[in-house]
Each structure stands twice: as structure tokens, then as C-alpha cells.
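User: Predict the full complex structure for these chains.
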Amino acid sequence: MDTIPAVENSPPQINSAEFVRITIYNDYEVPADTTVLTASSAYKDEVIDAQVFSAVGGLMSIGNQQKSIRVTSADTTVALSGIQGTLINTVLSTKIRGSELEIWRGFYNTAGELTSTAKRFTGIITSYNITEDRTGLEDSFIVSVNASSYKTVLANRVAGRKTNKESWQFFNADDSSMNNVYSIATQTFDFGRPVTSGGTGGGGSGGSESIGGDFNSGLNQQK
Amino acid sequence: MAAIQTIIDNCSGLTINRRKVVGLQITRNQIPRVSTTPTKNPWQMELDMPTSFKYADARALMESVDTLDRTGYEDVTFSNNACLNWIFAYQGDLTLIDLNTITVTGFVGNVLELNVSLISKPASTVMFKPNDLIQIGNNPYPFTVTTEVLRGSSTTVSIVMSRPNILTATIGGNNITVGNACTFRMFCPNMPVYKLVPGGYSQSGGVTTGNAIIEWSDSFQLYEYVGTS
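Assistant: Here is the predicted structure of the two-chain assembly.
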């Protein structure tokens, strides 16, 4: 567990600001082709992990982030306000869904100097929302992005391989383990049933090319 | 006509607000817990305007107020008006010649360091008193001194200011401006509207030229325009 010195021993006053970085992957086949957006609630530009966080990034608010001792699946929301609609354009014209969202909290001393940082959230943007509101002479818009933690993303991920030749050889073109699957694809048999004809046995091993007929004969008897 | 400057010169009340944004909770055992976000801590001023302008005399003011609207900013000062220049007046013992020799050597966090090597004054000379304004170069964002600062014997002095360095421009070597000569870059997010009410009758050659005075819908709530700092 990481220790955050700035909040150790429950100090009576904490001076902090939030820093947000969005890494947009422009081409999923070229991971290095990224666009990075930053925003912060700090009063001036700050550098964290060699990344300059702009103080005029338009950060409005950050939603709740669940904190647990255990690894938990939690979502959060970041709301941004931009000038001249540039953020709306960013959301609509880039592949922002699937982008990586990272949130840091920066801690300041009483002189207003950044002294330490702690990462609060890492996740993937799953959706966005654009709110434009005009009431009387008040005209405003807010861009919100919702992000899920990596744990949620992994939990929802459909992965694995099918037990057929194509799926197996997708990972290893020389793997012939499933080459004979098609020959037994429509057959049924009982594992452990005594062999009543043929010489190889109708049970378990099923991988040999020579036993197909035995399966069939055994099954015919069963019928 | 400069709208906000005219309002300042004619206002009947001034409220200054430099409170920070804080999260404050009192625990069950009555211990305060404070959470703050360091901000640019902008100046906020609320100006009360009397219903005193005659319509015929305020045409230019009304136009400039409408032009500035709620988003335009204006650089204003309290030194223009002989009746107001006591506000923010410099309280130290240095002469204008002395002050003009001071340059900035650094500004980290909220500690401003000045080069005072050209000032030949006793070490006990009071350079600044609390609430003295200091403006760096031509940046219209005044900072206030929080403690009394003596000349001392060093070539530099360090001053704890009211807010951290919010300037993005290079400031090393810049001269300073102090006291009421400083300027504030302000805008008025609530820019009041005006109403013409009977009064202020005026006549010229037997012809009525005006019979209304200007009543403002609200006080002028000025906010420092720190977006360009």
C-alpha cells in the first residue's frame, strides 16, 4: 500500500489540486500514435511524470472515486468546460471512447508550491456526454467523460480461444492440436462406458485419428 | 469613457473580497479540518452606485457599460481620483526614486525576492507595510505584502505575498509599481442594467433637454480577470 505523506497523521489542513490526463489512441494498431489532453484545477502549469498539466485546461469537476483496501470496480466522471467549443470538437472528432484516463492529486505547501503527488485513478473512458444549456442570457456547455476502472474493463472483457483449428492456430500457426476436432464435432459419446466393440476403447482420449470409427461403433450400440 | 473606472470614481461604497475557496468541516470533537485548492485568488470588489447621474450627463457612461458588457475587462486604478487615492496608498519610507531602482530577482510560491542593492538606507528603514500593493512590471495583477519588510543589510529582500506567483511571463529584472499606482484588471460578470427614473430636470433655451436620472439595477460586482495572467 502506498503512503501519501501529505495526508499522513490526519493534518488539519490539506492544500491540493486535481490533475487529469487523457491519452487518446488514434490508431489501435499503432499504440504510439496518441494524442494527450491535460487539465487541472491548479492555479498554474505543473509538471507530473514529465507531463505538463495546463492550468487552463478547463477542468470543472471530478466525480467521486471509491477508495477501498481491496481492488474494486469503480467508475468516475470528469467534467470539462472549454472555450469556443474546442472540447466538443475533441470529443466528437477523436476516438475518445477507449482512451486512457488518469487522475492525480497534487499536494501543495502553504506557499503554494507543489510538493508531492498521488495517483488516484486509472481507467478507460467508456462514454461521454455533452451538455449545452442556455437559460436567459446564460449560455454554457460542459463536456463530461465517464471512465471505468481497469478492473471493470477486464471483468467485461470477452476473451479466450475456441477449441477449433482456426482459433488455436491464430495464436500458433504450427499447433495441430485441434486439427481433428471437425471429425468428432457432431458425435456424442459417454466417457467411461465399457468398450463393446473395436480395439481402442471408447473412453477418454479422443485425440487420436484412428479412433473415430470406434466412437461411432460404440455409439451405435448404445442406440 | 472607461466604464469601470468611472464607476469606481463615483461609487458610494466599496467592498473588497479576497476570501479563498475552502472546504471546511468541524469534526465531532470540534477540530476544524480544512481542504483548499490553491487558486489565483482573484480580487473581488463590490461597488455601490448611487442614483446620481443625470441621463444627459451619463450617455457616454451607459454606452461604455453596454460595450464592456459582462465579459470585457478594463484596467483600473485608484490613483486617478484625488478623493480616492488614499486607498491603497504606499505606506513605506522609500522615495519614488528608491522604488524605481528595485528589480525582481525571483518569485517562487508566494515569496517574492527583490534586488534592493541600489537603495542606500538604514537597515531599519521600512520598505513595505502589510497591505501595501506591489505590481510586477506591466502585469496588472497586484499582490499585497503580508508582513512588515525592513531594508536590512542584504542586497535582496524576501517578501511573503498574499497569493502565489500567478504570472506566466518572465519577470526576472522587472521593475515594480507600488501603492495606489498599481492597476487592477477587472471585469463585471453581473454588469447591472440601468433604469431611467424621473429627476434631474434640465432645460436649455426653454426646451427640456433631460428629466431623468440613472438608477442601477444592482451593485457592480467586479472580478479580477486572471485568465490572461
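Helices of chain A lie at 86-93, 150-155, 165-171, 212-222.
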